[in-house]
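Bug report (template v2)

What were you trying to do?
Predict the complex of my protein with fe (iii) ion.

What happened?
Run completed; filing so the output is reviewed.

Input:
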Amino acid sequence: MIQISALPAFTDNYIWLLQDQHHQRCAVVDPGDAAPVVAWLQQHPGWVLSDILITHHHHDHVGGVEQLKQLSGATVYGPARENIPGRDVALDDQDQVSVLGCEFRVMSVPGHTLGHIAYYHDGLLFCGDTLFAAGCGRLFEGTPEQMHQSLDSLAALPAETRVYCTHEYTLSNLKFAQAVEPHNPDIAERLATVIQLREDGRMTLPSTLALEKLTNPFLRTAETSVKQKADERNGLDNLSQSAVFAALRAWKDKF
Ligand code: ZN
Ligand code: FE
């Protein structure tokens, strides 16, 4: 069994720390900064950092990789199609990786970046900047169609899957979700919960796919009310779900 906790980095990043208590080994996902990981290792003598998982090439996800690799000798896994510092194992869609005794399946999820990958193991999803709590990543490299398809493939995982994304954007995402669906009671309820969590200085992650399907507008492009709102925004009859997605994403970029 692995235990998961968050090491905050920069202003709103989380570096996910995976711990194998039995062997005192650990892994981190997307260490954009080495310092929080180094501090944790210093506070936990005897623990070995054995693996580093990377979802995409942005600096806030890879900035700490080389220092951590040098310090620990950890194996660095990352997307084959992107330039990842210190990468030892290049991963593509459907590859399997064994980390802390768990088999993770690699999913190609282009959109935010073209080579972006996610890692899935038995109800645990590490999805970088693809699916966020109540939102999704910006389209820096990919098309709306690619991102929509990537989100679809993540949404097809089991509903109880816990979603470990990399940024604390939930509150602002939910404000947008409420603008899209002002009458959605699940969004209103989640917004109240998240406002309270943030007031208490607590994190809003992980999410679950079940909750995302109820409250994340980018996973709700099939809903009539969401389509109507998208049509209203861009003045088109958005006939496909990916057209609805594109309209929502463009709106959110300026929200
Ligand atoms: Zn990114
Ligand atoms: Fe990021």
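What did the reviewer find?
Residues 58, 60-61, 129, 166-167 surround fe (iii) ion (ligand 2) (CB under 6 Å). Residues 173 and 221 are 16 Å apart (CA to CA).
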